[in-house]
Structures are given as structure tokens and as C-alpha cells.
């Protein structure tokens, strides 16, 4: 029940909806530019994860090979480090207040996903 309440508060006040819309828009752009479809899939995964982060975690996808690792290097150079840095800055800013600490932690959980998204999947936390 606590996860549900935190997810609803995240969605409304923590910026979850804005993040999901941003990642969704980036996914649409990647789908239009056909060669970047794998990045679009990763961006869509980030959109869903950023929409409802509490009670979920990111794990390595079994069977992810060298191709996803090479694509991740390209992702880091083009967008990953900017996204990771923005999640770190937002997390630090949210952790300044006691009420914002859970939302700051949620932003910190999104850092590895934003930095290295390919070859990972979102699963329910134990």
C-alpha cells in the first residue's frame, strides 16, 4: 500500500508524469528515425519505469549481448550522461527536504537506467 501511495505522489508531485512524457517523446523521435529504434525501445522502457518507480527495480536482461553494450556506449555519449546528471541533480535537490527524500531516492534509482539502459529490464522488486 505504501508503494502505491508513493507512486501516486511521485506521479503528481515528484515529476513522474513530466519524465514519462519526455522519455515518451524521445521514444517517438527514435521510432521515426528508423535506425534508432533500439534507443526508442530503451527510452520507452525508461518512460514506463519513471512513471511508476516504487516497487520496481532494474536488472540485467539475460541474453543481452555485445550489440547492446556497443549501443550503450553510443547512448552514453549522445544522451546518457546528460540524463544521468539531470537525475542526480534532481535527486539532490529533492533530498534537501524531508518530504522530498523518497522522490530523491527514486531519481537516484533512475540514474543507472538513464546512463546504461540497453540490455536491462524492469521487474517488480521482491
TrEMBL record:
Ranges annotated as spanning the membrane: 7-25, 31-52, 64-82, 88-108
Protein name as it appears in the record: Inner membrane component domain-containing protein
Domain annotation Inner membrane component: ranges: 5-56, 70-120
Keywords: Membrane, Transmembrane, Transmembrane helix
Record flagged with keyword Membrane: yes
InterPro entries associated with the record: Inner_membrane_protein (IPR052937), UCP028777 (IPR031308), YccF (IPR005185)
Entry GO CC: plasma membrane
Superkingdom, natural source: Bacteria
One Pfam assignment: YccF
Amino acid at each position: 500500500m505504501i508503494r502505491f501511495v508513493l507512486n501516486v505522489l511521485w506521479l503528481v508531485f515528484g515529476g513522474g508524469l513530466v519524465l514519462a512524457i519526455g522519455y515518451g517523446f524521445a521514444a517517438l523521435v527514435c521510432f521515426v528515425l528508423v535506425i534508432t529504434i533500439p534507443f526508442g525501445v530503451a527510452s520507452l522502457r525508461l518512460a514506463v519505469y519513471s512513471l511508476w518507480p516504487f516497487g520496481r527495480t532494474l536488472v540485467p536482461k539475460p541474453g543481452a549481448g555485445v550489440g547492446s553494450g556497443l549501443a550503450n556506449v553510443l547512448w552514453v555519449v549522445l544522451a546518457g550522461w546528460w540524463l544521468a546528471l539531470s537525475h542526480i541533480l534532481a535527486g539532490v535537490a529533492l533530498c534537501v527536504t524531508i518530504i522530498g527524500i523518497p522522490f530523491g531516492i527514486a531519481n537516484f534509482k533512475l540514474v543507472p537506467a538513464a546512463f546504461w539502459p540497453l540490455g536491462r529490464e524492469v521487474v517488480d522488486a521482491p
